[in-house]
């Protein structure tokens, strides 16, 4: 039941983001996509279109590499990072860090998924934690949130077996030391 609540919040977040904030130009120029065909492919590409101001390019790349490699252990798909190039074919999954206006009265929205894109609020203080590090409640774990939004993206798009993708709800041990989150089914 809690999962459906998060899916509903993600959908509402997307609608509000579209109404309140303008989307990057790259989204506007993309051709109409057959999502059933897209999600049935055995190999999917992803691209980080807009980089976070709080994370290094290396931390962001490593975060998504880890998240997609974890997903590959649960569903039979391979994920390949695609570099952004205006003349190249758009990636199957696009990742954006951009300010999200959360003054909508619904609550603070830190990220959301829709169609073929994942958005993260770049007003958040994102951090890529290393295993064993003490958690700072003022810094959001990008790895767990990335995995959560990838799972939501697959669920919203009704990808085969997406409803069986589960994510650890905790990413710390009893001493509040960071533990890498994992997908399981």
TrEMBL record:
The alphabetized UniProt keywords are:
Hydrolase, Metal-binding, Protease, Signal, Zinc
Which residue intervals define the domain Peptidase M10 metallopeptidase in the entry?
39-130
BP-aspect Gene Ontology terms: proteolysis
Q: Which residues form the signal peptide?
A: 1-22
> Per the record's keyword annotation, is NADP included, yes or no?
no
Q: Which GO terms describe its cellular component?
A: extracellular matrix
Q: Which GO terms describe its molecular function?
A: metalloendopeptidase activity; zinc ion binding
InterPro entries, sorted: MetalloPept_cat_dom_sf (IPR024079), Pept_M10_metallopeptidase (IPR001818)
Give a yes or no for keyword Signal in this entry: yes
Protein name, as recorded: Peptidase M10 metallopeptidase domain-containing protein
């Amino acid at each position: 039941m809690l999962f459906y609540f998060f899916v509903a919040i993600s959908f509402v977040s997307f609608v509000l983001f579209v109404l309140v904030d303008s989307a990057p130009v790259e989204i506007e120029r993309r051709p109409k996509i057959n999502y059933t065909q897209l999600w049935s492919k055995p190999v999917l590409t992803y691209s980080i279109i807009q980089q976070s101001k709080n994370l290094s390019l290396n931390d962001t790349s490593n975060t998504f590499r880890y998240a997609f490699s974890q997903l590959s252990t649960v569903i039979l798909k391979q994920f390949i990072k695609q570099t952004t190039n205006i003349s190249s074919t758009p990636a199957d999954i696009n990742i954006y860090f951009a300010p999200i206006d959360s003054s909508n009265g619904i609550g603070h929205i830190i990220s959301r998924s829709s169609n073929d894109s994942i958005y993260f609020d770049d007003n958040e203080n994102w951090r890529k934690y290393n295993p064993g590090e003490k958690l700072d409640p003022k810094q959001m774990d990008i790895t767990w949130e990335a995995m959560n939004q990838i799972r939501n993206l697959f669920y919203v798009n009704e990808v085969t077996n997406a409803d069986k993708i589960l994510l650890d709800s905790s990413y710390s041990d009893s001493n509040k030391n960071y533990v890498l989150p994992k997908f399981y089914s």
